[in-house]
Design goal:
Blueprint lengths: L8 H8 L15 H14 L7 E5 L2 H15 L7 E4 H12 L10 E2 L2 H14 L11 H13 L4 H7 L5 H19 L2 E2 L3 H12 L1 H10 L2 E4 L4
Helix pairs in contact: 1-2, 2-3, 4-9, 5-6, 5-8, 7-8
């Protein structure tokens, strides 16, 4: 196995443990990516088809470096292995499946400026002051982002708000209208890219089973 001889005993153990979950806890520069790339080579040697392997990392730079390392180890088969960032992986899944959430597959991805424009329209329609220091446009965006990071939809958030919680009720209304305006534009913000595939897999067994069959070996190089 190419590269195996350069690994230490713990790295070799990681490479050879191909079935079931494996977690590596190690510091920067300790060889996590090296173990992962050799593990991919080992999976291929065992007869696993390259298109059943997905390797995910956090940044575009890291994904590019991982692709190059895998290419050096296994050659042309590397082209058929899906190596990507978390967000790029989710975009690919949504391009194939987002119709199940009543979006068109040709959705747009809004950046920070687009988000701000949408939120200003939300504030206008709800007659809110966009420069109120206690609840500004940017504050609203940040609070909604926090909810999405916790995988809380606007419907779920609204259910948790107490009738006497005026700030919570205000955010619930803002979150709802913000999402409806995004959907009307067939657009997603950056947080949606992670949240929507997660919700889709939870809610739709057929879609989940399809991707479980496609991705049989999931390797995550780094997560935050």
């Amino acid at each position: 196995m190419m590269g195996f001889e350069r690994l230490n005993d713990m790295q070799k153990k990681v490479v050879l443990q191909t079935e079931g979950p494996v977690l590596i806890l190690a510091g920067a520069g300790s060889g996590k990516t090296a173990a992962l790339t050799v593990r991919i080579a080992h999976l291929l040697e065992k007869g696993i088809k390259p298109w059943h392997i997905l390797a995910i990392t956090f940044t575009n730079k890291a994904a590019k470096e991982m692709k190059e390392r895998v290419q050096q180890l296994i050659g042309d088969d590397a082209k058929n292995i899906w190596i990507s960032t978390f967000h790029a992986t989710c975009v690919r899944i949504l391009r194939a499946e987002i119709q199940h959430l009543d979006y068109d597959t040709q959705f747009s991805i809004y950046d920070a400026d687009d988000q701000e424009k949408i939120m200003k329209e939300v504030f206008k329609q709800l007659s809110l002051n966009p420069i109120d220091k206690s609840f500004s446009v940017r504050t609203a965006i940040a609070q909604i982002s926090k909810q999405k990071e916790e995988m809380t939809s606007w419907q779920e958030y609204a259910k948790t708000v107490d009738a006497l919680d005026l700030k919570g009720k205000r955010l619930a209304k803002v979150y709802e209208l913000y999402q409806k305006l995004l959907k009307k534009s067939n657009a997603l913000d950056f947080d949606d890219l992670i949240m929507l595939p997660t919700l889709l897999f939870k809610q739709n067994e057929e879609v989940r089973s399809k991707w479980q069959e496609k991705i049989r070996y999931l390797l995550v190089d780094e997560y935050q």
